[in-house]
Design a protein that fits this description.
It is a single chain. This protein has a single domain, classed as YqgF/RNase H-like domain (Nucleotidyltransferase, domain 5), CATH 3.30.420.140. A 5-stranded mixed β-sheet has the order 3-2-1-4-5, sandwiched between helices. The two termini are about 15 Å apart. It is globular, with a radius of gyration of 14 Å. The chain contains 4 helices and 5 strands. It has about 140 residues and is an alpha/beta fold. InterPro entries: RNaseH-like_sf, YqgF, YqgF/RNaseH-like_dom, YqgF/RNaseH-like_dom_sf. Its EC number is 3.1.-.-. One of its GO terms (molecular function) is nuclease activity. Could be a nuclease involved in processing of the 5'-end of pre-16S rRNA.
């Protein structure tokens, strides 16, 4: 089993998570502050090399009715860019409720608003990756 990299791609940040070697659990790594596609790619390639990642899972923020809006199109275009530049398979994963779920978990854990802002994307990436792995193992 090769490790997977999970990404929650936004306009300003990219939440990053990685799977364990067995593909059972996802751990949050970091929230990248976006600068440019090239710099984002360079940082992701460091994680890919460090964990010998075999595939990437990118969250696809569909609208609640299942349609693809501007944010989802941006994620698809970034996923295609990653696939071309890393030569790794890139899978899209419906992430409609992950950021809200991450926010609820952090609030229930009594995490301050400032701390939530810093970890929400990394946590959303963890939930995206965990959801993908859970669905694949069924």
């Amino acid at each position: 089993m090769t490790r997977l990299l999970g990404l929650d791609v936004g306009d300003k940040t990219i939440g990053v998570a990685v799977s364990d070697e067995l593909g059972w659990t996802a751990q949050g790594l970091e929230t990248i502050k976006r600068q440019s596609k090239e710099k984002d790619l360079a940082r992701l390639q460091e994680w890919i090399a460090k964990y010998q990642v075999g595939a990437i899972v990118v969250g696809l923020p569909k609208n609640m009715n299942g349609t693809i809006g501007p944010r989802a199109e941006m994620c698809q275009s970034f996923a295609q860019f990653l696939q071309e530049r890393t030569s790794l398979p890139v899978h899209m994963w419906d992430e409609r409720l992950t950021t809200m779920a991450a926010e609820r978990m952090l609030i229930s854990a009594d995490v301050s608003r400032q701390k939530r802002k810093n970890v929400i994307d990394k946590m959303a990436a963890t939930l995206i990756l965990q959801g993908y792995m859970d669905a694949k193992s069924r």
